[in-house]
Fold Phosphoserine aminotransferase.
Amino acid sequence: MQRPYNFSAGPAAIPEDVLQQAASEMLDWRGSGMSVMEMSHRGKEFISICEKAEADFRQLLAVPQNFHILFMQGGGLAENAIVPLNLSQGGAVDFVVTGSWSQKSTKEAAKFCNAAVAATDEAQGFTHIPDPASWKLRGDARYVHICSNETINGVEFQQLPDLASLGCQAPLVIDFSSHVASRSVDWSRVGLAFGGAQKNLGPAGLTLVVVRDDLLGHAMAMCPSAFNYRLVADNQSMYNTPPTWGIYIAGLTFEWILRQQEGAASGVAALEARNTAKAELLYQAIDGSQLYENRVARDCRSRMNVPFFLKDESRNQAFLDGAKARGLLQLKGHKSVGGMRASIYNAMPLAGVQALVDYMQSFEKQG
Amino acid sequence: MQRPYNFSAGPAAIPEDVLQQAASEMLDWRGSGMSVMEMSHRGKEFISICEKAEADFRQLLAVPQNFHILFMQGGGLAENAIVPLNLSQGGAVDFVVTGSWSQKSTKEAAKFCNAAVAATDEAQGFTHIPDPASWKLRGDARYVHICSNETINGVEFQQLPDLASLGCQAPLVIDFSSHVASRSVDWSRVGLAFGGAQKNLGPAGLTLVVVRDDLLGHAMAMCPSAFNYRLVADNQSMYNTPPTWGIYIAGLTFEWILRQQEGAASGVAALEARNTAKAELLYQAIDGSQLYENRVARDCRSRMNVPFFLKDESRNQAFLDGAKARGLLQLKGHKSVGGMRASIYNAMPLAGVQALVDYMQSFEKQG
């Protein structure tokens, strides 16, 4: 039976291979007699799962050895507090606001530090990324925060800013929740990256933090121990009991990514090629239609989250109902924006995007 | 095939029925075409799962309507910070220290409030619960914290203290991580209860908080929004993306508990009868032997976590190896205490305890 195509923005589709394997190992993980959920996190079975997940993630995104990979909890929303608690020392932090998530991050950080907006595209409805040359970066900023892909607004940095070339010595912090592992990362430009797992990596409840060694050890006194990066790193993500199931599913997903091939490319490079093709197919269909529109500037359209609107909004419900009947699920746009949104993460095959495009065209013709 | 018996202290055994159902629904939850891990937390499918889990938990522990049931993240260790951030207002908080967990809670809370030890059994190696009449409770305490079952030390409150009868008006906070849903709770004596799910309720990464209505809304300014009980309650545990898989498995576990029967008793009462019988069987075997010993006073021995020592510690590894060969897993004691520990949570059947007792007796006879 063909499974439906699930366009949820997160929690989101998981590769079918991963689900099959998780189901088959549910009662007995590889002869251990236990489900992964039943294993002590300090036992050799789970430690092997966790170490392999970390090593595979390091390989697939070419994470340098001077970065720690941490498995944490609380999602991006908790990290909006945890990052300033660990990095700001209560000082200046600059934010570039390109959508709902970076806006939330700014507001939350202001509880803990001197947060300021270095640039914002709010006046244009979050459809552009302000030119880095225009960012008002402070000389005493402890770090500069961006959301490298805005899930709700569909705005993605096609390359990370080079802060050093802007005369800024502060580390760059990126919230890469909704496009992690969909493309390569230039770690030379990054100090810390964080992301909830529930878009591209696995189930909700697991947060991934990749942090450069020199940024550990500066937490404020009011930082809860469970969220102190130094303690988490020193204890191999087991200072408190980690979300073991999430790490296991993420690990299976990393293995799935490493197996992917597109022509000569493999792993993340293969996915990047596939994701580029998927996004082009969908944006071309939108741009070529009379009914649909996407309002984001072409140079910063997200490859992962494609918000679009029906010019005749009275047809929204009919569009969603028809989609569901065809096995095209969870296309409703975020409540703060309205319209539609197709999230086409790593686990969405090209065939799923083609099925959506076919449906959109036939729906438009029905008029 | 008979599954092994898993005595892990947590993450711990999960009822086989729950695992079977989770495996069977992995690719398609009840005709939705999605795994639970793939569902938007804001979609009607997942909302129905979450609402049912909450209602079932309320039913099984008879949680009064003026208490909120929150699904959070971070485990007991994070709650050690989150509770004082929400309840202390930076004022006085009194702790009763009966083992490793209440000791950790005291230390963490001291970052946020004026934490003091009202009573401690450290001098006796955490083998007794200090008589509540002896507790030094301060008149201005914002709350009084106990760990109602100490997982590492095997010390359990057989009844909750009645603070009002001690002349104390502060709410009681209980860390019930390792015995939640194993016995009834007298909510008239409790202001807030919290617990990680990974002992009796489901997988690691889900934290349950049960909090009385009047204790919401007093969070300190430095409390991260994701961990502000008022915001979590007002948003039905969806202020940030909740750990959806954990809530689903906990929900299946709640259904399993509600189905349990022992004689005329059902639900938690049935489990309480079964847990009492299991603990008696194991403690009698220990007390009746020449080789094994448990050092906890009889009136506060845990029904869930039974630490025991071999009087000849040179035989420890042989004991563990022989146990594993018989399908009796994860019996090694916590590294801070040594020896052995049998965690016999709700999911452990009487037959599992009987198998352990049989093995212990045959091992002792081998000499």
